[in-house]
Structures
1.
Amino acid sequence: MTHTRRIILHWAEQGHIAGSDLPRALALAEVLPSREMWRRFLDRLLLWMGTVLVAAGVIFFLAYNWKDIGHFAKFSMVEVLVVVALLFVWRLGLDRSGGKAALFGASLFLGALLALIGQTYQTGADTFELFGVWAAMILPWVLLGRLAALWLLWLTLVNLTIILYFQAFPSVFGLLFSTERVLWVLFAFNTAALAAWEAAAACGIAWVSRRWVPRFVATASGGCVTALAMIQIVEWGDAGIWTIPWAIPAWLAWLGATWAVYRHATKDLFMLTAGVFSAIIVVATFFGHLADGDPGGFLLVGLIVIAMSAVGGMWLNNVAEEDGR
């Protein structure tokens, strides 16, 4: 439907379809949302918004009334919600949107329960352990749920666990874990997660066909490797460069893989746009570092950014037109 709509709009831009006839052309092609489609969209939107807001409401209710509610009442409230959510999952099944939303809500309530345990008993555990245990406990639900949002929640929890772990243990046996090493771990994890997701999508698994999840993961992966490349450029010539000698090659490999996969194998304009944006950032960082505070150099950097943005925009527009034909 999206491809057909893009073709019709492209014809309208070329003048093959008059502007007054465009709504009729879209209606004849059956690419405009029907009443049933709008009803289904609003139904799912309200379902998921309600699930997230109920979970957030419980967390904020407990936080606001922390001193006024006893331990028994706090634990009872959250545990009952977890059980009720799982009962809805059992009653509705994981093939229906209601069952999937209930499973997602149970995962959020479980996190609230773990936070409640840690805050009540003050076990001395580090924050990363909360998110790590949370991710480990919901992993069976993630595997059974076949729900993109739940997978994204799990990936987020693992990312937070990694970040907080390196904050809690900045060094082991005298080996300092710098920001670069944290970025390397995050880059490796998110790249592996992205590759696994795209491989599953290539195998024809229906529930992983949603493109918004790999775009989130690719943003995290690309952001980490772009930051690594920027750090290596800024620290060029200093001793710190030897801590990340492979940052630029890794960034170039990521950029090449992005172009190869999302230009030819799985066409995705968002991913290509992210690659262009990353290239602009790294190149601007390189020339900005060479400028070394010189006003003329910063003017050159501005001109380079404008030129790369224009060229990248034209290339992305050509790609979009080719896909629309």
Note: Residues 35-64 form the longest helix (30 residues).
2.
Amino acid sequence: MTTDPNTAPSVDLRFPEAIRELWALLEGDVVWLHGRWIIYRQLFGTNKERVDLLNETLGTVSGILQDVLLHDVQLSLSKIGDPASKGKHANLSLRRLHDVLKDAGEDQVASKLESLLNAFDMACEQIRYRRNKWIGHNDLVTRISGQSTPLLDASRAEIESALSALRDAMNCIGQHYTGTPTRYQEFVMNQDGEHLVVALAQARRYRELIETGKLDLSELNQCRI
């Protein structure tokens, strides 16, 4: 897997020609969706100490970053689960991939994929509702009613369930042609949330040392949370 989201995905010749480009593009989206969720968990889903550090050192930016990541993950899940097309416009989605597989005569994998896509749709039901009414659109009735009944954002358990269903669908296809499942949830990035946490912890310790007049640069290497 590439560690650069801007790099064009490579085409795997083990897949039928009809789906090679679609698969490469879609898998790239799924890989980086997991990457963003990994970063979210590292920053906001590990322990209270990390959240306190982010709030102390980043302030308002911490809250914005949390909202942006959580909303982006839900938008990405919704797009991947969109219908094959809307009106005259084709979508890059699992449903599009399923239709192309059927048209290419890949009935065995297409049949297995159908039930997994239904399970993915069910796991994303509330996520899609938020995308349609709140995150991706500004539905007036939803916003007004939210003044008295606050809209609830996704829980980590809900996102994890949706991602698990997505991995099942992706590996139904990928493993069929490659013989090996992909562990998207273990995607490794060059720089991730762990690097930010360490940098902020070091910055906080540096400030403390400056304030007390006890600056010792060797102590910065001990900043871990």
Note: The two ends are 29 Å apart (CA to CA).
3.
Amino acid sequence: MKNLPLELIYRLYKADIGDIIDNTYVRLNGAWMTDDNRQTTPDNGFLQSSIVYQFIFKDLSEGAYYQASNGASPAHDSKYSSQNWCYEPFTIHTLDPFPVYRCRYEARAVNTIYVIDNIPN
């Protein structure tokens, strides 16, 4: 683990895959994740869900790969109360400096096959 300035982590979060930040860090991937727990429902009938953003980057000065992840704090918009809103990760309620963890990174080529059926009217 090492700590990096939150401003740097935010720039890596906003970067596109392959972008180089400060001639040292390369953004490799990233995705939103959420839990899927449909097995237990509290007595009030509410479902709980956590939203997390995670990405991998490489430190070119060390040759090491790091992973950063942070939950997105819930936000509310009274105009669209039936939708789920959240603040950007790595902004509100976030540690500065931000801890990142060394990880292993592996990329694999995957074949994709598209099947298109002619569905009659």
Note: The helical segments are 6-14.
4.
Amino acid sequence: MENTHRVVAWFDEADDAREAMVDLEVKGIDADAIHITTPAPTAVAKETAHRADLDVIHRLGSRTLVGGLLGAAIGAAVVVGALVVMRVDSLGTAVIVGAIAGASGGALIGSYWGMVTRLPVNEEAFDTSVVGDDKAPGIELQVRLDDPHKESDAVGVLRQHHAQQINREVA
């Protein structure tokens, strides 16, 4: 019977805890195994929740925009390059149409990819009652690991995001 490992980290900043959750998911740790809490329940003002929601929208929007612009440039370059290599007749018109088509397709794919790469699976990452309160007394992030080899990855991610204290437990 294998033991379940648990890593518990405390953060002073809500953004550090949120980014740690996303990076833990990127490292292959299941979103259901990551939980975020505050030591004491906090009442969140409407303004604070609204500001946290706007912050999330701004982050996702900026990643979508950057991904779309990058995708448009790459898509246009690939399609125009392919048309030049194929030596199509009426190269000028083909290049313009190819650039527009490549940019459109690339923007669609790039904006999707730009947003999805940092979108957490765990909905707790956007819970404004926990991570939206910047004046919370501390934020606890719990990670349950069935694979002991992933424990060092989890601890590394938590340290990278400025965890104030990290405890390891075996159950």
Note: The domain at 1-43+129-171 is CATH 3.30.70.120 (Alpha-Beta Plaits).
